[in-house]
Write a structure and sequence with these properties.
Shape: globular
Helix content: over 70%
Largest sheet: none
Radius of gyration: 18 Å
Number of helices: 12
Strand content: under 5%
Length: 277
């Protein structure tokens, strides 16, 4: 799990760096195309058909839609906002997944866990500082991206068990590719040629993105979920570290306090969920 979180932080940094050289939509398109090809290869190796009827089921269509929204707006926020801030907003995803599961799947959530959810959302508000002078409307892209990932995770839960992790990975990256195309059409930006250095970064982005996904699958499928999941929060260290060391970002008191509240609330939710089971 720690390796996966480190990889995702590197992925975020690469998206920002590559977007300095070529249009943002082109970055997403190439990232999605490369990732889809890799997962298609593994489906072939595992002798799994890429196109099965479950792909057209409502949960899968909803999952792809939210994947598209999440990837588009989260990646866009990485280009426009400090990586450290965007990373911290993303950490509210597990909290909202628990809340969504309670509402959509009627999973039992007691008063204590609802309080933890509310405190977690309060931590997000502290990070965003919506009433502060330094508030940027671009931060809403990070929130939309985070909500997209919440919908994706809930959609994954409702997806048919016939769909393997390789299927989910393949169609997830197809959604990334579509997000790149849609953004390029909306922005009216043409794709451009790029240097060998940029190509190297793109290939590294694809390999790191797929490798992180594989590491995440390995952690969740072979480890004790209740033990492994809290290590998702190591992404805060990697994401904030990348922002400070690579992009010269500063960490404010509100960011630190908000992240502590989010991590605390998420840990309480995970702990109480394990005890409930």
């Amino acid at each position: 799990m720690i390796v996966a979180m480190l990889g995702f932080a590197i992925e975020d940094s690469l998206i920002r760096l590559i977007s300095l050289s070529i249009p943002f939509g082109q970055v997403l398109f190439l990232f999605g195309l490369g990732g889809a090809l890799i997962f298609a290869f593994f489906c072939k190796v595992q002798k799994q058909q890429l196109f099965v009827k479950e792909v057209l089921s409502s949960p899968m269509i909803i999952r792809m839609l939210f994947e598209l929204i999440g990837r588009l707006f989260y990646s866009l926020s990485l280009v426009l906002m400090p990586i450290s801030l965007v990373t911290l907003v993303l950490q509210a995803t597990p909290i909202l997944v628990v809340a969504g599961a309670a509402v959509i799947f009627r999973e039992p959530v007691g008063v204590f866990r609802w309080i933890a959810i509310i405190f977690g959302l309060f931590g997000v508000i502290l990070i965003l500082k919506p009433t502060g002078d330094g508030f940027s409307p671009f931060v809403l892209f990070a929130v939309l991206g985070m909500l997209g990932f919440v919908g994706r995770d809930l959609g994954s839960r409702a997806a048919s068990p016939r769909l393997s992790d390789y299927h989910l990975g393949f169609y997830g990256f197809i959604a990334v590719m579509l997000a790149g195309i849609l953004f390029s059409v909306w922005a009216g930006s043409a794709y451009v040629s790029f240097s060998m250095w940029t190509l190297t970064y793109i290939l590294l982005l694809i390999l790191v993105g797929c490798g992180s996904y594989f590491a995440l699958m390995k952690a969740m499928r072979t480890g004790d979920v209740s033990f492994v999941t809290p290590f998702r929060y190591t992404r805060i260290l990697f994401g904030v570290g990348a922002g400070v060391l690579l992009f010269g970002e500063t960490v404010t008191t509100f960011l630190i306090l908000g992240s502590i509240i989010i991590v605390g609330s998420g840990s309480i939710l995970l702990s109480s969920q394990t005890q409930h089971k």
